[in-house]
Design goal:
Layout (H helix, E strand, L loop, with lengths): L2 H24 L29 H5 L14 H20 L3 H23 L4 H18 L4 H21 L6 H14 L3 H21 L12 H24 L3
Bound molecules: zinc ion.
């Protein structure tokens, strides 16, 4: 594949990531995503376009507002870089195709959900519910003969998560159930890889937090970021991991 497609994917991902920062901040606060334009959280000064260039402006200004020198969180460039990277890996995995568009949209949604859940312990309905419906429609449009696979994966993943919520109340919540619905609609069979990876990452992080950071077992940790991480692994390597696993039994 031509290198310029990767460069374009990265630049497009940076621009989308810049918008995702706005969504992550404003959606849970019920603020408009369009207005007002970006402004400094410290002094309220509108941010000029040349101070709003993804990644570069933050680096040039060394993470401070040009006007009042208030710190701008390192998370802004990190979200941009993550989105840019996810868009490049999507291009590598799916080439120029309809699944590439699905992968870009899915990755963007997962990044938004991970950060909002981390900040507020909320998985927003306004993302996962339309995501599940549009994701299912897109999966079936791309792969019509296997329409039932995506329906079973979506409902199955949500049912599995619902059972866990019933068994361990206080652990996961209804948001995680709806997120599983979304994951299955897009990932199909690979949702198994996504859920398994999420539990693996979640347990490792839990052990780490208890052992190293001395958090108690009762500390509530949002599960959305792990589901998002597992989803990205499943999106990019789900088929390879599944077939490698199956080959163990041949
Ligand atoms: Zn300022």
């Amino acid at each position: 594949m031509q290198a310029y497609l990767y460069v374009l994917s990265f630049l497009f991902g940076l621009a989308v990531g810049s918008f995702l920062n706005v969504v992550i901040y404003r959606l849970p606060r019920q603020e408009s995503l369009a207005r007002p334009g970006s402004h400094c959280p410290g002094c309220g000064t509108p941010i000029h376009w040349y101070d709003n260039v993804p990644l570069l402006s933050w680096l040039v200004l060394r993470g401070r507002c040009r006007g009042c020198k208030a710190r701008i969180s390192w998370r802004y460039p990190v979200v941009e870089a993550m989105t840019g990277s996810a868009f490049v890996i999507s291009m590598w995995r799916f080439d120029l195709s309809w699944p590439l568009l699905v992968a870009w949209a899915f990755a963007a949604a997962m990044i938004v959900i991970a950060f909002i859940d981390y900040d507020h312990m909320i998985i927003p309905n306004r993302i996962v519910l339309p995501g599940a419906v549009i994701g299912l429609a897109a999966s079936i449009a791309i792969d019509p003969s296997r329409w039932w696979v995506y329906m079973v994966a979506s409902v199955g993943a949500a049912t599995f998560m619902f059972a866990l919520v019933m068994l361990w109340p206080g652990g996961m919540g209804p948001g995680d159930v709806k997120m599983a619905l979304f994951m299955g609609a897009v990932l199909g069979v690979s949702v198994i890889v996504g859920l398994f990876a999420a539990f693996l990452f979640g347990s490792l992080a839990g052990v780490f937090m208890m052992a190293v950071m001395k958090r108690s077992r009762k500390t509530k940790i949002p599960f959305g970021p792990y589901l998002a991480l597992g989803s990205m692994l499943a999106l990019f390597l789900g088929e390879q991991i599944t077939s490698a696993y199956m080959s163990l039994f041949e």
